[in-house]
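Quick one: co-fold with zinc ion.
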Amino acid sequence: MRPLRETGRGLLGLVLPVACAACGADDVAWCGPCRSLLDGPPWRCEERAGRLDRMGTRPDVPAWALADAVGPVRSLVVSWKDRGRTDVTGDLVRALAAGARLLAPELTAAVAVCPTPARLLVVPVPSTAAARRRRGADLVALLAGGVAEALDDGPGRQERGSRARALVALRRRGGRDQVGLGRRARADNLAGRVRLARGLDPAELDGVPVLLVDDILTTGATAAQCQEVLARAGAVVIGLLVLASTPPPGAPSTLAPPPVAPGSRRFGAAAAGDLDRSHDLHSGTRARTVDSAPLRR
Ligand SMILES: [Zn+2]
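Sure, here it is.
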């Protein structure tokens, strides 16, 4: 027999109304106005991520995002990754896959000049094993799977002549969460912690184009580590695709005016808190309130 408390939680789940994972609007898992924030074509964001300059031999590696990681977009990703809102996984995968389809021509051109252009690997930026356990799944790997599927079928496939497939090629050993760490501390915390996945033959990566996929790009420290490890195995990172990009401190956000969702319970407050949060992350201050919960790897 299950403990009473557990049973109670289950019953609560049946009767509690669902709310938008981004803005809190009633009766919908992800409301229309919030969905539209991730609708647009991907735009370049690598200049915001100071640590991407460590992408060694290819300083011009582009990064693309669908949205600014502020306001409801940031709330959405935090809810998805760390507050159990995996009911929006499918929608987020579809949003990033749609963005990837729009990038197909650019990716095709980048793949064509790689030594082994026959296949494009879509590689998720790795989370720690602890984070995967906490979330019950490797959520970023699910994003990568959707992107690979979209690129494999999508426009550009013919011209590219290559297959796209997702591969969990990297793993991340321990280390503390990046939460509350400044830019330099983030890089130090990561040093040497990204490795090739166990059992992966580095020969599989030799000359192969790789598109990295992640949820949010902040400093780029993790992506740069991934690129270094992949490059050592001979792979060529042609880009990084993320759901959202954190604007640097003080930078004007490109976020469209926040949608006013009907029945929104806490939209204004959440959006303001999230704007503050992005600054907290950059200054290394640990956010304290619930609405300011930072992202964890
Ligand atoms: Zn919403």
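If it helps, Residues 255-293 have pLDDT under 50 and may be disordered.
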